Amino acid sequence: MQGDLGLVLNPIGIVHSSMKDVEDPPLPDRPAEVEIYAQYQPALLRIEENSHLWLLLWFHKSNRQVLVGAPRRLNPDLPDYGVFSLRSPNRPNPIALYLVELVSRQGNILKVRGIDAIDQTPVLDIKPYYEQDIVFSPRTSYIRAADRTVRHNIMLKVALRHHQEPCRDANLAVRMALAAEEYMGNLNQPELNITVYGSRCLGDTLQGLTRARLANPARFTFRESSQLSRSIWERPGCNLMITARDIEPVGDWHDPDDEDLFSIELSQT
User: Fold this and answer.
1) pLDDT tens digits, residue range 77-105?
2) 203 within a domain of the structure (yes/no)
3) What gap in Å lies between CA 202 and CA 195, rounded to an integer?
4) Residue 97 maps to which CATH number?
5) Which residue in 9, 73, 200, 219 has its CB near the most CB atoms, within 10 A?
6) Omega of the bond leading into 217 within 30 degrees of 0 (cis)
7) pTM for the whole thing?
8) Has residue 61 been placed in a domain?
9) Where does a domain end: 133, 152, 176?
10) DSSP string, 113-176
11) Could you tell me if 91 and 177 lie in one domain?
């Protein structure tokens, strides 16, 4: 890996993953191993103190000539973006940035979760994820996957990263947010307010999914309730109320239709 200015990057390790080809579908929370080469193992001292890490990888099978593209595997109807506005692997310098959960360390092997790099991808660097890295409600492009299952998996990944537990009400919150997105579009838009009635797990997960703050601007209201699981979504000209039905325990939260899980009421104002 040598550039025009004589810049040389020496990989510090390599990824071991069940993902063997760039066309393999990404899976949420796919486990993987990062093998650090022996000469760099001392640099892992105290790395176990961190729950999450930034991984810098080199996407060695990327097309380095691409400057403009669209995430059409995600949604064929999306417009073009410059590659510096995307997480596309195809770019002039195919450096990948992953935020992963450190599951465990065994010598020079890091077991991680949350990476969809293919097997044998070179690792350039590792950095700890610090609390000051957090931007709770950033402004980003709204890039929506066409496939509902993909959207579900993306939201579930965000929910688990925020709430830290795959409990029933965290899964219920993901399904509420999926249903709300069908009517409201981008759930992070600043003019969309949300009021949640229910458990703390429901409220916490919905706040994490919507990035709605209590102030500046005030978008989020929570009312704890043991009798009701409801979210109310309001923006100028439109109100949406989603109330959970009293249902049997759900095995796979991908399966039930919205109408089986919720009573949904939409009103135009």
Assistant:
1) 999 999 999 988 999 999 999 999 999 99
2) yes
3) 11
4) 2.40.30.70
5) 219
6) yes
7) 0.85
8) yes
9) 133
10) ES--PPTTPEEEEEEEPPGGG--SS--------SSHHHHHHHHHHHHHHHH-S--HHHHHHHHH
11) no
